[in-house]
Each structure stands twice: as structure tokens, then as C-alpha cells.
Design brief:
The chain is mostly helical and about 120 residues long. It has helices at about 1-40, 45-70, 80-119. Helix 1 packs antiparallel against helix 2 (about 45-70) and helix 2 packs antiparallel against helix 3. The termini are far apart.
């Protein structure tokens, strides 16, 4: 029973990882289309769109890493792998924080750009 549960959790973790990859690919394709067909020189919108997709993918990857912690047995030899996993999660959380600030700043710049055009 325990092995089946570990395999199911591992499969869920892999699916979440694949979702993160799909979100990144969709974001790159969508941003490329915006750049090629709609941007008209507004690179800010392209960066913000890609940033939003990267934020979502990072959230998926953080969830995957948290699920992966359940798969690591907690004996003395595996503390190194748990600490490295915690380090990866911490790095991803920091990246998410700063990327979120950057995307928010980009959307504010674009909103100000369009407000200046209306005047």
C-alpha cells in the first residue's frame, strides 16, 4: 500500500512538473506572437506577459518541490537531499518574489504609457 501511495505521489509530482513546462512554452509562444503581431514597439507588454507565465510556472515548480519532500525518506543519509531540496525551494521563492515585483512594475509602466496617450 505504501509503495502504491509513493508511486501515485511521484506521478502527481511529475504531472505538475510537466504543467510548469507547458506554462513556460505557452508563455514563450504567446509573448512571441505579441511581439511579432501586436506589440508595435511596446516591448514592456511582451516582457510582462512572459513574466506572468514564468511566475505561474515557478509556483507550479514550488508545489512540485514541496510534494517531492514527501517522497524523500527521513533517515540520516537523506538530510543532504532534503536540505538541497529546501535550498531549491528557497531560491524559487526568492525568484518568484522579485519577478512578481518586476511584472507589477512593468504593468504599471504600461498603464501609465496608455494614460499618456489618451491625453
Amino acid at each position: 500500500m505504501s509503495d502504491v501511495l509513493y508511486q501515485a505521489i511521484g506521478a502527481i509530482s511529475e504531472v505538475i512538473g510537466l504543467l510548469a513546462i507547458a506554462v513556460i512554452v505557452i508563455g514563450v509562444l504567446k509573448s512571441s506572437c505579441i511581439y511579432c503581431f501586436k506589440s508595435r514597439g511596446k516591448f514592456i507588454h511582451v516582457r510582462a506577459e512572459l513574466g506572468l507565465h514564468l511566475l505561474l510556472a515557478l509556483d507550479f515548480l514550488i508545489a512540485k518541490d514541496i510534494i517531492d519532500t514527501f517522497l524523500v525518506p527521513t533517515n540520516s543519509e537523506n538530510w543532504v537531499s532534503l536540505l538541497s531540496l529546501a535550498g531549491v525551494v528557497l531560491i524559487r521563492i526568492v525568484m518568484t518574489h522579485f519577478l512578481e515585483k518586476e511584472v507589477h512594475h512593468l504593468w504599471e509602466d504600461e498603464k501609465n504609457f496608455f494614460q499618456r496617450l489618451k491625453k
